[in-house]
Amino acid sequence: MGERFRHPPPPSNRMLRMPTAPLAILQQTFGYQGFRGLQQEIIEEIMRGGDALVLMPTGGGKSICYQIPAIARPGTGVVISPLIALMQDQVEALRQLGVKAAFLNSSLDIDHQKATERAFSKGELDLLYVAPERLNTERFLKILRNVRISLFAIDEAHCVSQWGHDFRSHYLELSLLHERFPEIPRLALTATADLKTREEIIQRLGLQKARVFLGSFDRPNICYRITPKKNARNQLLQFLKSEHPGDSGIVYCLSRRKVEETAAFLKAQGLTALPYHARLPAEDRQQNQRRFLREEGIIIVATIAFGMGIDKPNVRFVAHLDLPRSPEAYYQETGRAGRDGEAANAFMVYGLQDVVTLRQMVEASEAEEHHKRLERQRLDAMLGLCETTSCRRQVLLRYFDQAAPDHCANCDNCLSPPATWNGTEAARKALSCCYRTHQRFGAHHLIDILLGKSHERLERFGHQHLSTFGIGRDLGEKPWRSVFRQLITHGYLEVDQAQHGALKLTEACRQILRGEKELLLRWDDDPRQARSSGGPTRGAPRPFNPSEHPLWSALRQLRKTLADEQGVPPYIIFQDSVLMEMVERKPKTLGDFALLSGVGEKKLLRYGQPFVRVILEYEKS
Ligand code: ADP
Ligand code: ZN
Fold first, then answer.
1. How far is the CA of 112 from the centre of ligand 1 (A)?
2. Distance of alpha carbon 188 from alpha carbon 194, whole angstroms
C-alpha cells in the first residue's frame, strides 16, 4: 500500500512547527482556506493589543477568533469557560490539531492539576482553559502574574447577566482581569444578541473601550417552522419519522414531567430518546449528555437546563413542544441546530394553553414590576413571532435590530404563505361573550357558551340565557380556540392572574367592537401544512442522501473506531462536513486529502492514510 501515498510525503512530526501569521495558522493548522465574516478583523484587533466584544451566533466561528491570536502572539492564551464538558472537548479538538492546549477545572485530579500548572508556568502552552471559580484564587493569580499571557478570552460572556438563566456568579469576578492585567488584550464572546445583555457585559467586565463586533445573527441553514398544536406528540412523531430518521436532535419541553413522558413515548415508538432535566440524578444527566455527544442518532428530550455549551455540530433538529418565553430563548435554543452549517430544522408546536400558562408564569413571578414588564414584552414578541403571517426569519432578526429581506425562502411562511381569514365577526362575538360574563371566565368556558354547550357549571351561572349563548355554532371548537389564542397574542384580551386566568378586555378591543377595525387571522387548519413538510430547502443542500451511501457508512465506521480508541466524540476526529466532502471528492492520495476543508497538517498526518485506504477500497469494489 505504501507507494500509493507518495505525493506529498507525509510531513514528519519534527517538521510540524506552528506558523505565526494568523492566515498561515488558519490554513496549516486548522485546514481552512480563508477567514469567515468578521474573524479577520477581530483577530487583527487582538493582534494589535486591543479588546473586543464579539457577538456572533452559534456556529458563527467564534473560537478561532481567540485561538488563532493565542497561538500567534507570544505567551499563553487564557480562556475562561463555564462548562467543564465543553472545555474538555475544546482542548481535545485543539490537541488533535497539534495545538498545545490544556484545561484546569475541578474534574482533574491533583497530580494532573499540578502538571498542568507547571506546564503553564514554564510557558509551554498555547492555550489554557480555566473555570471562572479558579481564576480568583490567590494561588492561581500568583501563577498568572509570573507567566506571559497573550490574551484573556471570556467565553459565554452573557453568563455575567443576572437576568439570564445562564447566570454564573463567578463571572462577576472577572472584572479583576481588567484591574490586575490592564495591558493584556481581552475578548468577550457570546451568542446572545439582545441589547440589554450586551450593555451588561460591557459594564460588568469593564469593556467600555473594547471594539464591538456584531456579526449577522442570521442562521440561513436553519428552517423555521411554527405550527398550531393539535396532538403535540403525534405531530412530533410525524416530524421525526418523515424528516429525521436516524438524526440527532433536541426536543424541548417546559416541565420535568413532560420531558419524562415525551422521552418514554418516543422510546415506545422505537426511537433512541433520553431525558434531561435538572432533577435527574447528576450521573444520569451526565451520562445522557455524554451519549448525546458521542453517539449518533440520539434524541435528547430536555428542559432548558440542557443547552449551554452543547457544542455538538451535527444536531439536525430542535423541536419545541412548549413555547419559549422570549425570542431570545427561542433563538438560543433553535440555534443549537446546524452548527456545522448543514441544513437543519427548527420545529415548534404551540397552542392556546401555552399562551395562558406563560402569561400566568410571568404575572406570578416574584420579580420587580420593571422586570415583569420586560418579560411581558418579550413574551408578546414571542407570540408575535408565532402568529406572524410574514417571514419568520425577518421577524426574528428585526427583534435583534438586524435588517433582513422580506422573503427568506427557508421558513414555513415563505415556503408556503399561510391562509388568513377575516375574523372580525368571530372576534366580536368572542369579545362580547367575555364582556357579558363580566370578564371572569377563561377561554374554555367562553367557548362552551359560544357553541351553546350547556352543562352544570355553565347553568349555575345562568349562562345558557345569555344573548351570546350558541351564537358561535358556525365555527367548531378548534377554530374558536385559535380565535381566542390570537385575540390574546394580538393584545385584545389579557389573562387575569388574580382570577385564575380569566380573560379581560383591553383598551385595544374597542375598535373591533365598534366595527372600526378589521381583524385578519391565521387559518390554523391549513392544508399547506401537509405540503410544507418536505424539509428544509436552503442552507448547504446535501448533495446526496448520506444515510444511503455505502462509502459514507464506511467512513463513519472508521471515524467511530478512531474516536473510541481515543475516548473522544467522533466529531473531534472529523466533522460530518469533512466526511461529506470525502464522499463527494473521493481523494485517493494524501495530496488530494490535504485539500479537504478541515484537514490541517496534523490531521493529514494522523488520519490521512486510514481514510484514503477506505476510499480506495470502496473504489475497487
Ligand atoms: P461558535 O463558537 O461561534 O459557535 P465555532 O467556533 O464552534 O462557532 O465554529 C463553528 C464551525 O465553523 C466549526 O465547525 C468551525 O470549525 C467552523 N469554522 C470556523 N471558522 C471557519 C473558517 N474560517 N472556515 C471554515 N470553517 C470554519
Ligand atoms: Zn422566511
1. 29
2. 15
Kindly report, residue by residue over 535-588, the tens digit of the pLDDT. 444 444 454 566 668 898 899 999 999 999 998 888 899 988 899 899 989 999
Q: Is 336 in the pocket of ligand 1 (CB under 6 A)?
A: no
Strand partners, 52: 187, 211
Ligand 2: distance of its center to the CA of 250 in Å?
22
Res 499: pLDDT: 73
Residue 60 CB–ligand 1 contact under 6 Å: yes
| Cα–Cα distance for residue pair 172/159, rounded to 1 Å | 9
339 lines ligand 1 (CB under 6 A): yes
Q: Which residue has the cell 408546536?
A: 349
pLDDT at 7 over 90: no
What is the Å distance from ligand 1's center to 281 Cα?
A: 33
Residue from 431, 439, 386 nearest 411 by CA: 386
- The domains located in the chain, with CATH, are 22-214 (3.40.50.300), 222-415 (3.40.50.300), 420-525 (1.10.10.10), 546-620 (1.10.150.80)
What residues contact residue 339 under an 8 Å CB cut-off, 6+ apart?
Answer: 58, 59, 311, 312, 313, 314, 315
Nearest CA to ligand 1 atom 17: 61
Torsion region of 535: left, alpha or beta (phi above 0 gives left; psi -120 to 50 gives alpha)? left
Residue at 302: amino acid letter = A
Ligand 1 contacts CB of residue 276 (under 6 A): no
Cis peptide before 8 (omega within 30 of 0): yes
Of 174, 284, 351, the C-alpha closest to 274 is 284
Contact 58 CB / ligand 1 (< 6 Å)? yes
Tell me if 56 CB under 6 Å of ligand 1.
Answer: yes
Phi then psi dihedrals of residue 494, to 5 deg: -125, 155
Residue nearest to atom 2 of ligand 1 (CA): 62
Q: Which of 25, 32, 97 to mutate to test the pocket of ligand 1 (most atoms within 8 A of CB)?
A: 32
Order of strands across the sheet with 186-190?
Answer: 101-104, 127-130, 76-80, 149-154, 186-190, 52-55, 211-214
User: Where does residue 538 fall: left (phi above 0), alpha (psi -120 to 50 degrees), or beta otherwise?
Assistant: beta
**According to the model, what pLDDT value does residue 193 have?**
67
Residue among 43, 63, 92 whose CB has most ligand 1 atoms within 8 A, to mutate: 63
What type of residue is 563? A
Q: Is the CB of 37 under 6 A from ligand 1?
A: no
- The answer to which of 126-130, 158-162, 223-227, 435-439 has the lowest mean pLDDT is 158-162
